[in-house]
Amino acid sequence: MPAFAIGHYNIQDVSWRPAYRAVVDELVAKHGGRYVARTTCPWEVLEGVAPDTTNITMIEFPSMEHARAWYNDPEYAPNGRLAIGHGHARSSAIEGAPDGERPYRSVASPAALLWVSRYLSTAAVSS
């Protein structure tokens, strides 16, 4: 069952991003992941208060085990600290719904991405 790593970031200084992407993009592929949406994709808040977010990233992995292996990869650790060192970050992983329960043709659809972003924004505001 697929799993999705979702990152919400508030980044003011983007000078570090090319070096980060050079390493992290390879690590995502190494663990079977693919970017579904990233900073360059437009996004908007449909309901509630806008989160303190400048960037959102969503990566699809074959399973939660793959998502965890990517996040816990020793090569990722210094890059995760690099991202956090230049702003604020919140990262989550969510397991995809079983095929019979999937409300959309593809969980990577824009509607699904907006739902996940709205859920995470609401969860951050209420905690």
Q: What's the CATH architecture name?
A: 2-Layer Sandwich
Q: Number of folding domains?
A: 1
Q: Kindly provide the name of the CATH class.
A: Alpha Beta
Number of strands: 4
Major sheet summary line: 4 strands, antiparallel
Shape: globular
Strand proportion, as a percent range, falls in: 15-25%
Helical content band: 25-40%
Structural category: alpha+beta
H/E element order: EHEEHHEH
CATH topology name, in short, is Alpha-Beta Plaits
Q: Give the integer mean of the pLDDT values.
A: 78
Total of DSSP H or I helical runs spanning 4+ residues = 4
What would your notes on this structure say?
With 127 residues, this protein is α+β, with helices and mostly antiparallel strands. It has a single domain (3-126), classed as Alpha-Beta Plaits (2-Layer Sandwich), CATH 3.30.70. Helix content is 39%, strand content 23%.
